[in-house]
User: Fold this.
Amino acid sequence: MQHQDDADHVALIQAAWHRERPDLDVSPQAVIGRLHRLAARLTAELTLVYQRYGLSEGEFDVLAALRRAGAPYERAPGELAAHTMVTTGAMTKRIDRLERAGLVTRRTAEDDRRGRVVALTDAGLRLIDEAFTAHMRNEHRLLSHLSPGEAGALEALLTAWQQRLEGAGPTGRTG
Assistant:
């Protein structure tokens, strides 16, 4: 027996809009609405793992960006902002919190006395390695609801769509 909560929420919204505004084609909601709801659900599932390690999503991203940099696991704050797609102000707050937790250090850049460098501490390296391992297990679990063929097809579709949207610019127009 299907509960009301189990019903396809997007289909219910589309039906209501079709009833109220039959003059509009609401078919994009079938994709956009489901992607939006799925993204929210995935974010909730992913952040549960980060929280087990005492990290927010943003803090996990900073530690992961430092870890991906390779030894000696450091980057300039501006690079970190670019690699995690946040403002430098937001990055400063994340770095402050991670530094207080003993997971990163800040120092003056050797090649530019005005610049700063953020680096993983030994504790930060251990934590991100452990958290990232758990994160990958979680992502595998989430994708296990799809067959390998479905996951591959979805990846190809999303990649193509993302590339086309990014090529279209903010107005959505190409050329």
Remarks:
- Helices lie at 9-20, 28-52, 57-68, 77-84, 88-100, 122-143, 148-168.
- The radius of gyration is 21 Å.
- Confidence is low (pLDDT under 50) at residues 1-6.
